[in-house]
Amino acid sequence: MRFVARWILLGVLLACAAVGPSVRQDEDPQSAAQRLESLRARYPNDFEVRLELGVAYYRLARKALDEGREYDYTNYLGKSLAEVLEATRIEPESPSTHTWMGIITAYTDDLEGALTSFKNARRLYERGPVHHLNIAQIYIYMGDMNRAQHSVERARRLGARGAFVDIVESLAAWRRGDLVEARDLFDQAYGLDPEEVNNWDEAPVDKPIESFADFTAYCCGNHTCGPHMGKACQRMQLVVKERELRDETLRQELVIEMERRRKLREIYERRRDLQIEVEPAR
């Protein structure tokens, strides 16, 4: 999946009002974490420092999982969400932390939890096109194309433009089986912003994406995308990479998620006026 947290206004994609600051794409996450840990010691109540540190830990978690280090993965995953939650405590009205919770939760394959987080971000800033586009992506992976299209249209009415919009619509067209439209939309996105195309889950891809074939191959070979685009991948004769983790790793993910919800509930118990949802809708 490829969600965006850099703009609040996917205007993120989209127009820079985004979701708060983030670790530089070209910065080594370990170096970033060390730098931000030092800043945290000096400024423990700084929203940007806590959120950026959460992002650095998230990228370290991804790296650990890519390398098969599952213990390190869950360790960094827990640290990441702890920092994002602390940033939420500092600024409970910021949509940025909820967007990052959505990105991180989606990475653990919890689409319902991710959808809840992205909707919370939208609730806190209804006019942010990026939130509607992130929600659209979740609906595409869930196969709810009507809601996905509605969310994209809403984003466009709010001014959404640029490569990420085209990428979301390319993904939707591919899922529907319209490969001509999907390819045209991808080519348009790549022509507008190759860097955006080569960013996945708020991190650079490991192999350059320069064509629609590269795009579909990367999705199908990525455990955060392929399993949710199974039939679309089959039509392209691409093998889907399934998410395969040890039972203990899955258990730790569940423990971390339960703790996230507990802390989130505690934070917003004092801010019921914001109407933040903690549990996914049934």
Task: Explain this structure.
- 63% of the residues lie in helices and 0% in strands.
- It has 282 residues and is an all-alpha fold.
- The chain has two domains: 14-131 and 155-160 and 256-277, Alpha Horseshoe (Serine Threonine Protein Phosphatase 5, Tetratricopeptide repeat); 162-244, no CATH class.
- Helix 1 packs antiparallel against helix 2 (47-66), helix 4 runs antiparallel to helix 5 (111-124) and helix 7 packs antiparallel against helix 8.
- The longest helix is centred in the last third of the chain and has 23 residues, at 247-269.
- Mean pLDDT is 91; it is low at 7-21.
CATH architecture of the largest domain: Alpha Horseshoe
Oligomer: single chain
Q: What is the CATH superfamily classification of the largest domain?
A: Tetratricopeptide repeat domain
Per CATH, what is the topology of the largest domain?
Serine Threonine Protein Phosphatase 5, Tetratricopeptide repeat
Structural class: mainly alpha
How many strand elements?
Answer: 0
Discrete helix count: 13
How far the N terminus sits from the C terminus, by CA atoms, comes to: 23 Å
CATH C-level class of the largest domain is Mainly Alpha
What integer is the average pLDDT?
91
* Total number of domains: 2
Relative helix content: 55-70%
Radius of gyration: 18 Å
Low-pLDDT segments, ≥5 res:
7-21
Run of helices and strands: HHHHHHHHHHHHH
Outline type: globular
